[in-house]
Write a structure and sequence with these properties.
Layout lengths: L1 H4 L2 H27 L4 H6 L13 H24 L10 H25 L1 H4 L3 H24 L1 H10 L1 H21 L3 H19 L3 E8 L7 E7 L2 E4 L2 H4 L1 H18 L5 H32 L2 H32 L3
Antiparallel strand pairs: 1-2, 2-3
Length: 333
Amino acid sequence: MENYLKSKGLRSFLIKTVIFLAIGMSVALFIQVYFRYTPFFKEYLTIPKVFTLEPPNFRTNLINSLILGFIAFIIVSHKKLKKLKDFPFEKNQVLFALLPIVFLILQYASKYMIAQNLDFFLQMPKLWALLRVLINLGFIASLALAVYGYDFLKYFIKEYIREIIIFLSLSIGFLVFTLAFQNLWHVFSSIISEILYWFFRLFFEDVTYTRYVPSATMSEGGGPLLGIASFSAIIGKPCSGIDSFLFFTAVYILIIAVDHKRLKPIPSIIGYPLGALGMFFTNMIRILLLYIIGAYVNPEFALGLFHSNIGWILFIIYFYIFFSIARKFIYKR
């Protein structure tokens, strides 16, 4: 790690990446936790779901796929990244910094126009949904230009085009793979629900459990309904842990594919089921935290921003701990 941090260009890139992610997540946090629950938002900016293009839980699957692609990018280009050039701050980055604000205003101006003229916009809802997606992409692109600078991004794309293609290919491939194999979620949901029901009964008095409840708002149709105190939720596909299991499997296969010459065969094979089991219990911890927050802190926060982001945060923490331990046994000395 110290050898990598000696590179001025890489240090600068990491700092800018932290700033980029911090700004993006801060904006999302403000909107999801506060702004969307204000009276102004509810009255003037609430629009029907028909004005969205992505299916339910698509964003979670997309985030998981992008994380996998990013891991592959780091693995493939880690030696090359030490030679990353450093670019000074450019004056035009100040102008680019204004563009994300413009795109945010456009996003909510479009929502306001749709909400106030619903009959007109319902004639072509998918067209306006596509426009809103393009505005979101414009926000991300302009924020990248403001943080990294035009010259750096041009250099980075040219220098790392092969690695970027690998990143995009794996991200898209894993997204398709995830969508294809998610039908196994019923098995995961049932097991998690039974275990958590038994666990909650040890510590809480008001615990309810129904093995299956249909839901018209969920594309999967429903799932086990578990509740503690006044909070209850269906443990459907997003909570089942199937995404984390598939993601763990993909990352483990990626490591074996890249480092197979340096790995011990038997420990590597044994390491997978042990790691997958740990991933399963990590997902149980995620659902446990969701219910505790939903019952005793804020149910809307639990089912909103917390539910959308705690999965990938816990995955990164778990995989870092697992791989730090496993690498001592699976790698040849």
